[in-house]
Amino acid sequence: MTPAAAESVLRELEPSVERLLERHLAVAHDWLPHQFVPWSGARDFDGPLEGAAWQPEQSSLPPAVQDSLVINLLTEDNLPSYHFDISVRLGRDGAWGTWNHRWTAEEDRHSSALRAFIHARRAVDPVTLEHLRMQHVAAGWTLRWSTVLHGLAYATVQELATRQAHRNTGALCGDRVGEMLMARIATDENLHMLFYRGVFAEALQVFPDDAMTALADVLCGFRMPGAGIPGFQTRAARIAEAGIYNLDVHREHVVLPLLRALSVMRATGLGPAGRKAQDRIGLYEKRLETRAARARALYAPRNPDKALPLSP
Predict the structure, then answer these.
(1) Which end of the chain has fewer CB atoms within 10 angstroms, the N or the C?
(2) How far apart are CA 99 and CA 97, in angstroms?
(3) pLDDT tens, 4-41?
(4) What is each CA distance from 176 to 41, 133, 171, in whole angstroms?
(5) pLDDT of residue 300
(6) Tens of pLDDT along 54-64?
(7) Which residue range is the domain that position 113 belongs to?
(8) Residue 141 domain-assigned?
(9) Taking the CA of residue 229 as centre, how many other CA atoms within 13 Å lie in the half-sphere pointing to its CB?
(10) How far is 77 from 225, CA to CA, in rounded Å?
(11) CA torsion 89→93→96→99, rounded to 10°?
(12) Percent of the chain residues topping a pLDDT of 70
């Protein structure tokens, strides 16, 4: 997409951004991260405060939940890269810029609260966590597609995927405070998804072929923003095995709801490029269903309640 084309997309969609931003501000509720941290159960760590070093047996959380917390937190930690990418793609002025700054302020609560919870509960090794944070954030993150429409499509899919990952992590953590915190963060992610989905729905009406192509590219090549975290594949496999996020979750709670909400397979008025992209999405959904069924069948003899990993 040329700079001129990008300007046209931003200009045409800005009225929708203004409307959806107003809707978001009307329903989003500010919350205080410090109120979701179990401070009374915290202890000093080793170091200048001469506390106790972390030991694996101090964590009461299941191993897969520990893995999920690490990936979720490090994903949230890379917020500077996401903010920069959005600023470059959408600009810093007008409704687009206002949204990006508001979204960033809301997202920043997540890493703040998650890290405090993890440290207070001694949920994971804090030294390893910090080393991973330095590696991951220092490496940065850039979306593989350069257009505005690809960015909007990716944000729509990713926000819903992140919502589900946080929600399921909380449901399986066996910790009342942790479940409350994960549910609170998931609520934010859902509202962010609704904003991006609303903008992208408008894009499908105004730029049907380009938007459908962008959505097909993103769905078929989707990778979580935390995929670059060192050791991601191993942790993701354990997370998937526990049922926190796997092929079934991705299909049932991310892909299919978005296809229905955006009326993707019923869209009309498409040109050749749009129809080709629509067909790609249909084939992708069928392949995803087949892969999910095969994974369930392969793993069922060992543990019928779990599914095989989601390939990023």
Answers:
(1) C
(2) 5
(3) 588 899 999 999 999 999 999 999 999 999 999 999 99
(4) 13, 26, 9
(5) 58
(6) 999 999 999 99
(7) 3-39+68-299
(8) yes
(9) 30
(10) 11
(11) 120
(12) 94
Find tokens 């992708």 and name the residue.
284
The single-letter code of the amino acid at 156 is T
**How many beta carbons lie within 10 A of that of residue 217, not counting itself?**
20
Asked if 188 and 110 count as a contact pair (C-beta separation under 8 A), the reply is yes
What pTM, to 2 d.p., does this model score? Answer: 0.93
Which residues neighbour 38 within 8 Å (Cβ) at sequence distance 6 or greater?
Answer: 117, 120, 121, 177
Domain contains 62: no
- Report the pLDDT value the prediction gives residue 283, as an integer from 0 to 100: 97
Q: Backbone phi, then psi, for 98, in 5-degree steps?
A: -60, -45
End-to-end CA distance of the chain: 26
How many domains, the chain?
1
Q: What is the CATH number of the domain that holds 213?
A: 1.10.620.20
